[in-house]
Amino acid sequence: MGEGGHGVKAKAGDALEPLEIAVTRTLIVAGAIASRDYQDVHHDAELAREKGSPDIFMNILTTNGLVGRYVTDRLGPSAVLRRVAIRLGAPNYPGDTMVLTGTVTAVADDGTAEVAVVGSNGLGRHVTGTVTVGVAEGAEYVGEGAEYTEEGTEHDAEGSA
Questions:
Q1: How many Å apart are CA 26 and CA 34, to the nearest integer?
Q2: Are 145 and 3 in contact (CB under 8 A)?
Q3: Is 147 within 8 Å of 154 (Cβ atoms)?
Q4: In what order do the strands lie in the sheet containing 79-88?
Q5: Average per-residue pLDDT in the chain?
Q6: CA–CA separation, 71 vs 67, rounded Å?
Q7: With 70 as the cut, is the pLDDT of residue 29 above it?
Q8: Position 96 confidence tier, pLDDT thresholds 50, 70, 90
């Protein structure tokens, strides 16, 4: 799918490799703090329970960041987020695992791609949405079947030589 160096390599119908993310207390709290979301339901289990939740849960900004990271990691270093539109479903609680999956739904002539993303956990679908990525300025879209090289070194799907 995504490869090192010089552009987004994708075609409509391509499935992105899934990404498993361990939902830990640290991830939930760090994500909330990093996004300046100090709501107690994201860091204080006792107060979260008082409000009817079984535990703390991940905020939407952390989920949004993980979805963006998933798509850009899978499509390569030249992929630039243009739009992330998500909807939350089942909460992400500590101790669970979220599995992100994605499918490229469209690729324009300029290399802009749309990706449908689903993040599921033990309770069901945590997040669904659409991510639009473009190609970084100065990079070129190389299209289906192209190979990437950077300084003469071919890269695999993980971007390593």
A1: 12
A2: no
A3: yes
A4: 15-23, 96-107, 113-121, 124-135, 79-88
A5: 84
A6: 6
A7: yes
A8: very high
Burial class for 22, CB neighbours closer than 10 Å (0-12, 13-18, 19+): exposed
CB 86 within 8 A of CB 129: yes
Read off the pLDDT of residues 108-160 as tens digits, 9 standing for 90 and up: 988 899 999 999 999 999 999 999 999 766 554 444 443 333 333 333 333 33
Among 98, 140, 134, 145, CA closest to 117: 98
Give the model's pLDDT for residue 77: 84
Determine contact, residues 133/28, Cβ cutoff 8 Å: no
SS3 content of the chain, % helix, strand, coil (to 5): 20, 35, 45
Q: Which two tokens stand for residue 68?
A: 């963006």
Q: Where are the beta strands (DSSP E) in the chain?
A: 15-23, 79-88, 96-107, 113-121, 124-135, 149-150, 153-154
Tokens linked to 149: 């090289």
